Amino acid sequence: MGNSGSNEVxxxxxxxxxxxxxEGVQLSTSLVQKMSSNKMPNESGHNxxxxxxxxxxxxxxEYQSIIDEREKQLTDxxxxxxxxxxxxxxxxxxxxxxxxxxxxxxxxxTESKFKKPTLxxxxxxxxxxxxxxxxxxxxxxxxxxxxxxxxxxxxxxxKSSLLCENSPDGA
Length: 171
Known about the structure:
The protein has 171 residues and is mainly alpha-helical. It has three domains: 9-39, no CATH class; 42-114; 124-166. Helices cover 67% and strands 9% of the residues. The chain contains four helices and three strands, in the order E-E-E-H-H-H-H. It has helices at 29-38, 45-113, 124-136, 145-166; strands at residues 9-14, 17-22, 25-27. Helix 3 packs antiparallel against helix 4 (145-166). The chain is rod-shaped. One of its GO terms (biological process) is inner mitochondrial membrane organization.
């Protein structure tokens, strides 16, 4: 041990494989074998260093290609989801438009089945005569009884004629 630093190495079993860990970092068996094969006593230190740099460079290129592939997959998935979302929005808009058109069509059909009420005033002249009579005889309202009687008869006559027109038997 002496002056040089020592590395603690632990071997753990992971399934059927043994994994060597150095200072808490797990090393795969293939990486341990590569590292072991690089420590050949007959190679010079310089050649070994160049070889290690080439291997590291090769590994970096492999990792970069994997990262690039994953990023491409992510962008493809992102684009797919955006397209799917746009399609769903279009379907929703189409469905809403169809529902609105169907509602409008049904509303017009229902309106056409029923007669719209006419809002023409009934007995308008007699009504105005009665109002004028009340204004002129505000303290003697009994003087307007004839005008009130005429207006009431006119309104009742209009009601009965309207009911006869709308009755199913037409009587």
